[in-house]
Amino acid sequence: MATSTEVPQGQKKKETIEQAVVRFCGDSGDGMQITGSQFTNTAALFGNDLATFPDFPAEIRAPAGTLPGVSGFQINFSSRDVYTPGDSVDVLVAMNPAALATNIADLKTNGILIVNTDNFKETDLKKAQAKTNPLEDHSLDGYRLFKVDLTRLTRLALSDLGLDAKSMDRCKNFFALGMCYWLYNRSMDGTYKWLDDKFGSKPVLAEANKLAMKAGHMYCDVTEAFQTSYEIPPAKLPPGVYRNISGNTALALGFVAASQKAGIPLFLGSYPITPASDILHELSMYKEFGVITFQAEDEIAAVTSSIGAAYGGALALTTTSGPGMALKMEAIGLAIATELPLVICDIQRGGPSTGLPTKTEQADLLQALYGRNSEAPVPVLAASTPGDCFWVAMEASRIAIKYMVPVIILSDGYLANGAEPWKIPTAAELPDIPVHYRTEPEGFQPYQRDPATLSRPWAVPGTAGLEHRIGGLEKQDVTGNVNYEPLNHERMVRLRAAKVAGIVQDVPEVVPAGDAEGDLLLIGWGSTYGAITAALGPARAKGHRVGHVHLRHLNPLPRNLGEVMKRYKKVVVPEMNLGQLLWVLRAKYLVDAEGFNKIQGKPFKQSEIEAKIEEVLA
Amino acid sequence: MTTATLPPVYTKKDFQTDQEVRWCPGCGDYAILSAVQAVFPELGIPREKFVVVSGIGCSSRFPYYMNTFGFHTIHGRAPAVATGLKISRPDLDVWIATGDGDALSIGGNHTIHMLRRNIGVKVLLFNNRIYGLTKGQYSPTSELGKKAKSTPFGSVDRPFNPLSLALGAEATFVARSVDVFQAHLKTTLKRAAAHRGTAFIEILQNCNIFNDRAWETLTERDVRDDKTILLEHGQPLVFGRNRDRGIRMNGINLEVVMLGDGVTEADLIVHDERHPNPAYAFLLSRMDATPGFPTPMGVLRAVDAPAYERSMNEQLKQVIAKRGKGEITKLLQAGDIWEVR
User: Is A344:A334 a contact under the CB 8 Å cutoff?
Assistant: First the structure.
């Protein structure tokens, strides 16, 4: 795996490798997310492909040093394509015994383990419920353990700045970051710049963190502990301008882009909820684009204010997670009945009820498809990678406007907070989103349908001669007047369903990755894309004939899906739920597909998918 | 784009729809509809700029009978729908028709937050102290001990006073009128129409099927002068068929006094609807529940405060002035970027 090219650096070695996985973990107050993000940005700017996995507790500050308070950030970076944050870890930085205990299982045998020995006192061990000191009980013998008194060394490095002990100790994560920069021969310039920007008004803190980082770097350089550093060359990504992007940021940008391309203002009604809140934060910054963000009093007001804005002619959006989704359902039914364009983002998390707010899951698919009273179909789209969230936001907006229909986007905690390098589209690469407000009073009927799309006219208030009434009561076909006639109701139910089903004309047919026919087809949706894609190569290299279809459109499903499934002997559907897409596929296509399910609040590992392929084809 | 033209001259008929009105014969809603249809033509606003938004309940059928833009939404959510509409379209004249169940029970949260934010919409709360459309359950404004379908032995919950609730949320315009006080209702509607910010009107309304004569003890001709007090800005609080009683301050309470015997109008409270402290109007609203006191009618409070949608849109303008109009390609390329050749 490692192409060892010895480069003299004093007596130290440099090794060029293809890929590495680093995980920073510590107390939720230790700044592990910032440390990880900085390491990630540096890797991205260097040109590596990468994927990240932030994993943090729901409590903002659980009691310091305890097991529930551990926060982690993992990055997989490589000179080749990266699809997942990595199954297991090459370098684990553990800031305390609790972090060590909860993360050590993922460290590879003989992997590098850096621990802050200053946090392994008896009280620390007690908080982590450790019966013995792992640094002394030989439980870590299988790893390359580096015992570093990080806190003391950081204080030493900052001793001239006149800071109090607490402020100095806050910089110890940057000591660890400096060590990892040395380990992978990374420039610290990007982080210097970031520190200058962040602490513009408090230059002493910028200086303190810089000193700590330099000290960590120097420590590796001068002590004998570290003999080898690693180089991971840039990846060969398609040409273009790149940035690092998380799923939530990509969604926010996608909606701004959609609003710009549609030429209508963006309105977001939202109520804070993990892990969706960052979309609200992000969009609240873009007022120069005319974006209105409305932090509503609850989830229901969030969606209904958006419906009000849609009625008024805005590109209307609401963002939430599973519990909020449940609260919005009646209102989504109103948007279906009144046939107004609306986009609803469900950033899924573990459930039911409050569940696992900061952990990922894909168990809202059936809620999105069927969670409303009566016959209430809506188009449902799912993003597959953080960067894909941008394109899904644009596509959902386009469908909502073209078909006058609420559209649900499913993302999840893993996509929301995970990041990857994203090729920034040029202006020409952004699709057009045509908007047509009805203005002609002659012959206007509120529910007169466009024969091609079955959508009704968007007749916004303020348009003279188009005064009309809409609402949640059943409407007469064409006129939109309240109507309770039996046959009219059936006609309207069928029309609304036909309109959504007809969106299939805009859904590209699926083209399987890997083998176009063969022994096994893996069908996934959402954030399982990376793990399935990563597992496909090794499985095919072993001679298995395996294909992979990843569904962006979950309603309506692509036209040729049924036919494609028939080309394989077996169909397996990996999902982070008990088999929801599986249920849909079996019901719709009468196919004997098999589920592969993981409901642990964590994404699939590549190895788990590989093992499943082996099991199925054995 | 548009040339300044006077809005067309409308008549009441211009605001009537071809839809058959489906309230029960004798319902107080007819009178309210008639008053609104009479007032809208007088407001000098193009008809297409009016939007009537409602929730669920008898009162919420209102939009179907108004020849304006109308949106009959879902139970309790009219304030939130109207909020989203008004924020994104401040040019529109948005009116909410709602009831005591819709606004104060299922939609209570939206109601208080709309008032707190001072969204520029007008709220007509039809208060008949009963659930009519679901056929006769007690409502959050029903009197304690109310015997209704769901409370055969009398309700044990204490009612809301809609005015007190609105004032508690620091509503900037709070008024009360009655379905059968047509002239007063029209005047009050016009006052609401002129208010910037949320204008909240409680309209006492009779449900002749499930709660007939709900307000009779206040509104019948022979008692109304004694049982109600008409609030007029700058005028002393005098009431009674002989205008011989008044309201004055006693400590932090109000008291009813007889004029004469050394008590003159000079001793009475002079109504100040612009009083900056909502506690003053709140005291007036509490007269309802106090034996011997008249029930206040008219505008309890009308103060100037920034409307939410104006502040919000002002903020957008300020950011655009500072940063310039946003360019999407610039936004996408913000932050740390790198080029792969």
Answer: no
B328 vs A260: CB contact, 8 Å cut-off? yes
Q: Which residues of B touch A269 (CB under 8 A)?
A: 80, 84
Answer yes or no: do A277 and A178 share one domain: no
Q: Is the complex ipTM more than 0.95?
A: yes
The answer as to whether A64 is a domain residue is yes
Q: What is the DSSP string of A477-513?
A: TBT--B---HHHHHHHHHHHHHHHHGGGGGSPPP--E
Q: What is the per-residue DSSP string for A319-384?
A: EE-HHHHHHHHHHHHHHHHHT--EEEEEEE-B-STT-BTTS---TTHHHHHH-SSSS----EEE--
According to the model, what pLDDT value does residue B2 have? Answer: 52
Secondary structure letter of residue B311 according to DSSP: H
Lowest average pLDDT, out of A221-230, A311-320, A404-413, goes to A221-230
Contact B80 A294 (CB under 8 A): no
Q: Both A189 and A44 in a single domain? A: yes
| 522-541 of A, contacting B, C-beta below 8 A | none
A115 & A214 share domain? yes
Could you tell me the residue ranges of all domains in chain B? 12-219+306-313
- Shortest CB distance from A462 goes to which of B84, B87, B91? B91
pLDDT in tens, A244-285: 999 999 999 999 999 999 999 999 999 999 999 999 999 999
CATH number for the domain including A391? 3.40.50.970
Same domain, A259 and A359: yes
Contact B83 A338 (CB under 8 A): no
State pLDDT tens for residues B57-85.
999 999 999 999 999 999 999 999 999 99
Containing B313, the helix (H) or strand (E) segment is helix B308-323
User: b/e map of A76-99 (b: 16 or more CB within 10 Å)?
Assistant: bbbbeebbbbbbbbbbbbbbbbbb
Class (C level, CATH) for B12-219+306-313: alpha beta
Judgement on whether residues A199 and A277 belong to the same structural domain of the protein: no
- A195 with A69, same domain? yes
The Cα B112–Cα B166 span in angstroms is 7
pLDDT of B144: 96
pTM surpassing 0.80?
A: yes
Q: What is the mean pLDDT of chain B?
A: 95
**Nearest Cα residue to A610 out of A549, A557, A543, A534:** A534
Cα–Cα distance, A323 to A305 (Å, whole number): 18
Rounded CA separation A542/A551 (Å): 25
Tokens of residue A464, six digits: 């003279």
pLDDT at B4: 61
How far apart CA B144 and CA B157 sit, in angstroms, is: 6
**Over the stretch A103-139, which tens digit does the pLDDT of each residue have?**
999 999 999 999 999 999 999 999 999 999 999 999 9
Range of the domain at A48: 13-231
Nearest in space to A145 (alpha carbons), one of A172, A179, A111: A111
* Residue A68: both structure tokens together: 């529930």
Asked if residue A227 and residue A256 are part of one domain, the reply reads no
Give the three-class secondary structure for B144.
coil
The arithmetic mean of pLDDT across residues B167-176, rounded, is: 98
Of B49, B316, B340, which is closest to A237 when you measure between CB atoms?
B340
At A3 the pLDDT is: 44
